[in-house]
Amino acid sequence: MKVTGSEALIKSLLEEGVDTIFGYPGGAIMPIYDALYSYMDKVNHILTRHEQGAIHAAQGYSRVSGKVGVCFATSGPGATNLITGIADAQIDSTPLVCITGQVPSHLLGTDAFQESDVIGISMPVTKWNYQITSSQEIPEIISKAFYIAKSGRPGPVLIDITKDAQFSDLNFKYKRCEKIRSYHPYPILDENKVSDAAELIDKSKRPMILVGQGVLLSNAEKELIEFSEKSGIPMASTLLGLSAVSCNHKNYVGYLGMHGNYGPNVKTNECDLIIAIGMRFDDRVTGDTSKYAINAKVIHIEIDPSEIDKIIKTEVAINADAKEALINLIPKIKKRSHEGWINEFKECDKLEYDKIIDKEINNKEDKILMAEVVNKISNLTKGNAIVVTDVGQHQMVTSRYYKFNKPNSNITSGGLGTMGFALPAALGSKIGKKNREVIAIIGDGGIQMTIQELATISQYKIGVKILILNNNFLGMVRQWQELFFDNRYSFTEMENPDFNVISDGYRIKNNIVENKKDLDDAIEEFINFKGPYLLNVIVEKEENVFPMVPSGESVSNIRLE
Amino acid sequence: MKGKGIYQVKGSEKKIKEYTLSVLTEDKAGLLNHITIIFNRRKMNIKSLNVSTTEVNGVSRFTIVVNSTKEKIIKILNHINKLIDVLGAFLYEENEIYFQEIALYKLSTKIFMKGDIVEKIIRKHGAKILEIEEEHTIIQKTGSKKETQNLYNDLDKFGGILEFARSGRVALSKKKRKTINFLKELEKTKSNKLNI
């Protein structure tokens, strides 16, 4: 069948089961948008208000649904506006296929209007990228793009298509990519390593599981629970691992890292065995690596061989998909219980509760604290919502206080720490999981980075709940300035616009809470409303997030105040 | 007990040495850039680089020489191996490979013709005369960097080296391996799909 390159692209996307595209048109991608016009009944296109919005939306969509997120942008500025999102998806292992238009091939390298070397620019932040200059290549390259994005450790792929390739004809035939000679995404599991790991696990006295996003990406939630219950080993989660295990599970001991829970952080240096699953020992988790896991042997289950021994030397490395590794490991270990050891975590929890949590969620002061807002939302939604956070204090507070109950429910920018992520990611998440409650929790700084996406939410009536924890400060930077830079608040205080007036302008229902007495009712209305809703909660201006492992210090030095 | 952090590697892995990387890739545009940015990101300088075809059609070989600690270069190697179009990247120390570089020396023919001393030097170094023109003479020498440098130093004493160029290293491993068999193994491996 003879079709244009543009039509071949849309047909290829349909072959890959794409149902939603987030994008923004422009000159060099117009033939593709023209082809899309004929397929409007088969594929949903969401017009965001900025390409960064499109890519973060695709990220949110992908992370809640497990599918590959797809976005379109034009050449030049359209393509460069995707870069932050691509870098974010790369470091957080999110499968994306980004299609960018490019100037006609005869103009490549001539500084043509809206020409940028997006292949060169995106090279260090993509899992793979490719420039198509002939329409003949489209079906094969698109099938490769999806295979690469989704398989192994997932990541973003960028395909740049010149305008002439979009226009010219080809005979369309589609075959899904099943293998690439130079790419082997699933390392073959070494049974001996699994046996070595089992031996260490059976001998250990104070073992600890570190749950990373790899558990979610390989759908190993069930196997993880089985492993933990059989071995009796407590589980702690990284930021991106949150929601892989229900926070209510009896073996779940909390959240790791700089602003994580007290127990899992200090116990890292008291345990004798770490079983790290699908995580990469980020510096926000380890603190000073020379004083990390000082009494422990380390088992690392990890699909990406370049992550093994990258930061922390392992005793046993199982280079495999997390689910496959756990399926093989579970029958090899003994049934055990580590009640005494788990109780030690509970003692830590009690200390943290008395010193911090109690004061925050049962705050007697007039000013509203972020923690009490998040805690109320967590209780009201019973931990069943998808929670999308931006970057900063509100993100850390949410990670600490939202009691996740269902997998793939914590959508946040972890590795890159991209402010402006939450609002577009939330709209993408809602489209990816229409039947679930999606709540975006955002600071007053972050929301202003992608606030234009309120228009997208309004146009498509995307029922996301948007909570602004508004302290008129870039709170996390201010906290560091207070603690480590002598209270020199260099450019962190903000004179904000009236978010409610802005919300009115976008025709999104909204409310503001300034007094504590109004908080409960306002949150209830916010949660129960059908449709998009923005709630602006004015919180304590100079609140600090604790516990805290000061940057570059050992996790043992976690501060409670 | 000491921690397991990145700063706690064994002494031998912390010593800076010369390493040769041999990278087999699909013959695709942009790969050179892909590979060099991995070094650049870690502020590692490439001492010599050579890209060539191999005995297998469509497969290129990058030969890269760097000074590095073993710890650092292994991390770089792992990242190169992760590139989609890289078939395999291998790390060698000097005693594990056969390697050569080629150097060209442009001398003024006037100096070359002054007695037979220059010719003697050329013979001593096992170099050869590639071309004699009226203005200049081209000498060619194949060998290790040290050998081509020694010839340079000897010729330089007479002045008159007009231009000098040295190629990147080319290297083959001492291992008994055929590229085609390696590729066949890659084709056979069942790591393309997850079977659970």
List the helices and strands and how they pair.
The complex is a heterodimer of chains A (561) and B (196).
Chain A: E1 2-4, H1 5-15, E2 20-23, H2 30-37, E3 44-47, H3 51-65, E4 69-73, H4 77-80, H5 83-91, E5 96-102, H6 118-122, E6 128-132, H7 138-150, E7 156-162, H8 163-167, E8 169-171, H9 191-203, E9 207-211, H10 213-217, H11 221-231, E10 235-237, E11 252-255, H12 262-267, E12 273-277, H13 283-286, E13 297-302, E14 316-319, H14 322-329, H15 339-361, H16 370-380, E15 386-389, H17 393-401, E16 410-412, H18 422-432, E17 438-443, H19 444-447, H20 453-459, E18 465-470, H21 475-484, H22 499-505, E19 509-513, H23 519-528, E20 533-538
Parallel strand pairs in A: 2-3, 2-4, 4-5, 5-7, 6-7, 9-10, 9-12, 10-11, 12-13, 13-14, 15-16, 15-17, 17-18, 18-20, 19-20
Antiparallel strand pairs in A: 1-8
Helix pairs in contact in A: 1-2, 1-7, 3-5, 3-18, 11-14, 16-17, 16-23
Chain B: H1 11-14, E1 17-26, H2 31-41, E2 46-53, E3 59-68, H3 70-82, E4 86-92, E5 97-108, H4 109-113, H5 117-124, E6 128-132, E7 136-143, H6 145-156, E8 161-166, E9 170-173, H7 179-188
Antiparallel strand pairs in B: 1-3, 1-4, 2-3, 5-7, 5-8, 5-9, 6-7
What's the gist of this structure?
The complex is a heterodimer of chains A (561) and B (196). By secondary structure, chain A is α/β, with parallel strands linked by helices.
